[in-house]
Amino acid sequence: MSRLQLEDLTLARGGRTVLEHLEGRFQDGAVTALVGANGAGKSTLISAIMGMLRPVAGRVACQVPKERRAWLPQQLALDLTFPMSVEELIMTGTWPSHGALKGYCAAHYRRGREIMARLGISHLAHRQLGELSGGQRQRALIGRTLMQEAELLLLDEPFANVDVETVDVLMEVLRDMARDGATLVVVLHDLEQLSRLADDMLVLAGGHGRWASPESLLERYAGQPPRAPRLPLTFPDTLDAGTA
Ligand SMILES: Nc1ncnc2c1ncn2[C@@H]1O[C@H](COP(=O)(O)OP(=O)(O)OP(=O)(O)O)[C@@H](O)[C@H]1O
Ligand SMILES: [Mg+2]
């Protein structure tokens, strides 16, 4: 069973084909790593899954309702000059299902506080977004997706410029979301992060996609200097035989 499936999906950007004939199911209740070189099409695929980019051919079959889909873009489009506190940002997670104009009830506020505590940002509740560090902002944004009760979460390089402690906190929260049944797709460039987070993996290269187990990559790099390799930029030989 899968709530998210790619069916002979072909995507283009600026008139040029970026990805062709992508097939396959993302597992529910699991984290799938999206892996590939710069320009391989990871963000393009994420846009298509969010419904923001129309396929040239094929389709994304997604059974998750729009109000339960969340996306953390690679480049934050958030206006940081807009006066909004961390708590206010987290509360906006109720908007997709509850509406923006109805205000919040006591239960919403209670959940918001629980979420901030879990992410270690209670002390930042009244801090303005423009006054946050990158890692603090990332915690707040993931807090909003928890508030939203996202069932599909697309994270485009969520750990870029984030310190190790924040990575630990965020990974634990993401693993919990998967355990609670959410479908997570995470763009990663780091082998160590892949080994800790991912259950499954879709590698993009040369305009095509290959599904593989994260273990197949980890085994391939076993014995190499610790933490050295970033993820491979082409399909590893061991994956070439895999079906698309
Ligand atoms: N708005 C756009 N207009 C035209 N071409 C684009 C646009 N956005 C991306 N592209 C092209 O589409 C291809 C895939 O880009 P994409 O951003 O999906 O790559 P990526 O795998 O996310 O790379 P990175 O690791 O650098 O984030 C690239 O060749 C890129 O130049
Ligand atoms: Mg990208």
UniProtKB/TrEMBL annotation:
GO molecular function per UniProt: ATP binding; ATP hydrolysis activity
Segments of this protein annotated with the region Disordered: 222-244
A Pfam family this chain is assigned to: ABC_tran
Ranges of residues in domain ABC transporter: 4-231
Keyword annotations: ATP-binding, Nucleotide-binding, Transport
SUPFAM superfamilies, per database record: P-loop containing nucleoside triphosphate hydrolases
PANTHER family linked: IRON TRANSPORT SYSTEM ATP-BINDING PROTEIN HI_0361-RELATED, METAL TRANSPORT SYSTEM ATP-BINDING PROTEIN TM_0124-RELATED
Family, similarity comment: Belongs to the ABC transporter superfamily.
Protein name: Zinc/manganese transport system ATP-binding protein
Natural source organism: Halomonas shengliensis
